[in-house]
Amino acid sequence: MENIENALNALSLKGTAVKKDEPMSLHTTFKTGGAASFFIEPSSAEETAETVKLLKGLNLPYVIIGNGSNLLVSDKGYNGFVIKLGKSFSEISVSGDTITAEAGASLSGVAAAALREGLEGFEFAAGIPGSVGGGVCMNAGAYGGELKDVITKVTALDDGEIITLENKDCNFGYRTSRIMQEGMIVLKAEFKLTFGDRALISEKMNDLAKRRSDKQPLNYPSAGSTFKRPEGYFAGKLIEDTGLRGFSIGGAQVSEKHCGFIINKGGAASSDIYSLICEVQRRVFDKFGVELQREVRLIGDFD
User: Fold this and answer.
1) pLDDT score at 87
2) Average pLDDT of each block of 10 consecutive residues along the chain (303 residues)?
3) Distance CA 257, CA 217 (A)
4) If 105 and its partner were Cys, which of 90, 140, 186, 275 is the partner (CB 3.0–4.6 Å)?
């Protein structure tokens, strides 16, 4: 308790605003989750670094989030500090064929900037419902493209210090990176694209948007694809072939439109979603011997 009071006093002296008991359902695309004990939205990379150093020094728990598109927060909330890189980290700038975007910027926003400037290579990410920070951390991808294909450098927070990583230093893999594995925090990323025909870029984005709309349950809260793609399989096909299309627990449902998505059909609790994830994993393994791994990140206590 003393450490928490020390942290709150120090943050107040630095001018950092701290909200108490902030509902995390307001900050996740699943629209579920209990309250975070403390919630901070830093206004700069320096303020983020100072906040992390302070909390680490006082041995207090914290997590970093972006727009919450890949998170499932416990109904019990999070007993610690949630640091959100949001609107103050949403700047996108373009110089020639290079786009620099802060961690809180949306991937769709970066794609829109690329289209305006006639830059191609980012079309695949236009419909990914995530922020640059989370996307870079997990090497987000869709329709045959991944962020690692266009990233040149990443500015990150490593143990409270601001560092720059070249693409080769990030050890990008399928839905993973050194940044994720070592618990670094993305602050901004630089993407190198190529000049192209604006009309063709727009046409490709529209085509991918239509394919996404036709196949994915975009009208319900979700975290996008719930599971990673198992080697040699497709998660959605395995789930469908297990007979789980439309299967529900509480307000959570395996989407009837795309079995790779678990959706909040209405009034779901995080416990419903988590129970459904576990049940899908169990049944798919029992039928096919394939272990489905979550793409969704858990925050808080799910025991």
Assistant:
1) 86
2) 90 91 97 98 92 94 93 97 93 98 95 97 93 95 95 94 96 95 95 98 95 93 95 96 98 97 97 98 98 96 91
3) 6
4) 90
pTM of the full structure? 0.92
Residues 6+ apart with CB under 8 A from 285: 291, 292
What six digits make up the tokens of 164? Answer: 């720059």
> In this structure, what token pair is assigned to residue 212?
């996404």
Residue 9 tokens, joined: 């006093």
Q: Which amino acid is at 68?
A: G
At 188, the amino acid letter reads K
| Integer-rounded Cα radius of gyration of the chain | 20
Catalytic residue from among 37, 225, 255, 270: 225
Residue 134 CB contacts under 8 Å (≥ 6 apart), including other chains = 65, 66, 67, 69, 70, 140, 186
Closest among 145, 41, 52, 56 to 103, alpha carbons compared = 41
Q: Is 295 a catalytic residue?
A: yes
Mark whether 116 is an active-site residue: no
Reply yes or no on whether 178 is catalytic: no
The one catalytic residue in 175, 177, 255, 270 is 175
Q: Which residues pair with 297 in a beta bridge?
A: 71
Assess contact for 38 and 55: CB atoms under 8 A.
Answer: no
Phi, psi of 123 (to 5 degrees): -60, -35
Which among 239, 258, 261, 204 has a CA at the least distance from the CA of 69?
261
